[in-house]
């Protein structure tokens, strides 16, 4: 996978294993209502995460980590030197870490040149109005991708990310001493730094192999590499009503039937407090949850929580066209009813679901047919919009989404024209 040229040639075929959703051509959306995000992911990606050994030491996700240690771990994972007083400095002096850090600097320099610089410049002009009205950004189907949402919305105060990946915990020192750590981190980052999206299940295998047990380690890494300082990390959960609570600290005691019922409907998450590059405070939430209709019927907390956040800006990219489908109608309705702005590529909400006269659209880049895996989600409405000679789309100076080349990528900015739903 590290032979870049060969990897790029094989990329379309590789997506059959890398993306997170597909459905049989012989089944209708109605027949598929029993599917979930997890089942659709398993249907395409045959790379399964190995079951962790019962004897292996596992970090306690409910324990509140030491803040200075968390920041040092974030730096260490990102190939940045930990603070001078950190007990990780001895590890950072070893040749293996120094080689890893040098390689990471090279990869991030390339990413800044091909993505960050152009994305930041584009967002500062095209999203200027959006930035002024976007204290909270909702990013469904995000996985641990704080990198892209922060680059697009650097002035927002709160980021709410949701995905199937488990929450995870701050890595313990034993994990950081594992010689397999650096290749695993490098492999997990490779696709997002080259193609702008994660290979979800491969990423899970890479990280679990070195006991990095979920999204949090990468959220921390991205915070460090985007110039944010971690000031606090708190394990949290959403109760059945969508209320944000501390995660339980003692899971060994026997629970009552009522407690078991409440726990079954709770959604695990993490709250990460940051000090931004400009010194302003920020809060990042990540929740591990199934956003299909079935998942939200079993655990409706995410819907209730997002509704409580007030007017939203929603960001969607590389979302495997899930909100095109009947059995993701609840999260689609949530986004359409509670967003002032929606920034998405064509894998987000299909144009046919936007109420006529309720939205103003700005088109960027180029719309081509979806890659073969998602060919059935072609949208004639987008072709018409992108070929309208009276309202030509604006340029997009960076690549994003499944059509990841800069010359093939698209973004749509939808601005609400009518009042928000109650």
From TrEMBL:
Biased amino acid composition, Low complexity: 49-65
Signal peptide from the UniProt entry: 1-22
Keyword line: Signal
Spans annotated as Disordered: 27-66
Ranges of Polar residues composition bias in the record: 27-39
Protein name: Lipoprotein
Organism: Hymenobacter arizonensis (Siccationidurans arizonensis)
């Amino acid at each position: 996978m590290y032979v870049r040229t060969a990897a790029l040639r094989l990329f379309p075929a590789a997506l059959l294993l890398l993306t997170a959703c597909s459905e049989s051509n012989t089944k209708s959306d109605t027949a598929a209502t029993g599917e979930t995000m997890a089942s659709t992911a398993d249907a395409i990606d045959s790379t399964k995460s190995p079951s962790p050994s019962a004897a292996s030491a596992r970090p306690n996700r409910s324990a509140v980590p030491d803040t200075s240690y968390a920041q040092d771990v974030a730096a260490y994972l990102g190939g940045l030197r930990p603070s001078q007083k950190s007990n990780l400095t001895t590890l950072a002096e070893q040749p293996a870490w120094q080689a890893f850090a040098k390689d990471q600097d090279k990869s991030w320099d390339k990413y800044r040149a091909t993505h960050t610089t152009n994305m930041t410049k584009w967002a500062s002009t095209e999203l200027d109005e959006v930035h002024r009205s976007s204290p909270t950004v909702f990013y469904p189907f995000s996985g641990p991708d704080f990198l892209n949402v922060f680059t697009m919305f650097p002035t927002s105060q709160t980021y709410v990310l949701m995905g199937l990946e488990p929450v995870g915990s701050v890595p313990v020192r034993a994990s950081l001493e594992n010689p397999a750590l650096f290749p695993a981190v490098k492999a997990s980052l490779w696709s997002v730094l080259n193609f702008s999206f994660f290979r979800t299940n491969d990423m899970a295998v890479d990280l679990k192999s070195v006991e990095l047990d979920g999204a949090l380690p990468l959220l921390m890494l991205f915070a460090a590499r985007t110039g944010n300082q971690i000031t606090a990390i708190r394990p949290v959960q959403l109760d059945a009503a969508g209320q944000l609570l501390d995660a339980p600290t003692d899971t060994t005691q026997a629970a009552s039937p009522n407690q078991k019922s409440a726990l079954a409907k709770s959604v695990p998450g993490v709250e990460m407090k940051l000090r931004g590059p400009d010194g302003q405070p920020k809060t990042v939430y990540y929740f591990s949850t199934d956003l299909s209709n079935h998942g939200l019927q079993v655990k409706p907390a995410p819907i209730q929580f997002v509704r409580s956040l007030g007017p939203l800006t929603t960001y969607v990219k590389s979302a495997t066209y899930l909100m095109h489908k009947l059995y993701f109608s609840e999260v689609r309705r949530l986004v359409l009813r509670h967003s002032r702005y929606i920034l998405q590529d064509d894998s987000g909400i299909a144009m046919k679901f936007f109420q006529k006269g309720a939205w103003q659209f700005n088109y960027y880049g180029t719309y081509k047919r979806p890659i073969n895996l998602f060919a059935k989600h072609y949208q004639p409405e987008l072709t018409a919009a992108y070929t309208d000679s009276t309202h030509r789309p604006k340029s997009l100076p960076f690549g994003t989404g499944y059509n990841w080349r800069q010359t093939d990528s698209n973004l749509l900015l939808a601005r609400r024209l009518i009042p928000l739903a109650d």
